[in-house]
């Protein structure tokens, strides 16, 4: 029985959020791979490998942080 004037609560669509989070993690993984490969190829030195590794760690950390924030 619904009482007039009392707001009802809508359950959140967590499946929709999880799908977007998985898509984001996949895309960040692709970007991480591309940046790591490109920086290693263009500089052709240990500097490129270091830049690629740091970039990969930063970009892989983004979905981990988002997952911790979103839940």
Automatic annotation (TrEMBL):
Molecular function terms, GO-annotated: tetrahydromethanopterin S-methyltransferase activity
Biological process, per Gene Ontology: methanogenesis; methylation
EC number: 2.1.1.86
The keyword Methyltransferase is assigned to this record: yes
Keyword line: Methyltransferase, Transferase
NCBIfam families the record matches: MtrF, PRK13275.1
Name of the protein in its database record: Tetrahydromethanopterin S-methyltransferase subunit F
Source species of the chain: Methanocaldococcus lauensis
Originating gene: mtrF
């Amino acid at each position: 029985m619904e009482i007039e004037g009392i707001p009802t609560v809508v359950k959140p669509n967590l499946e929709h959020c999880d799908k977007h989070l998985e898509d984001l993690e996949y895309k960040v993984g692709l970007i991480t791979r591309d940046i790591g490969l490109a920086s290693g190829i263009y500089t052709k030195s240990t500097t490129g490998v270091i830049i690629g590794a740091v970039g990969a760690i930063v970009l892989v950390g983004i979905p981990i942080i988002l997952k911790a924030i979103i839940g």
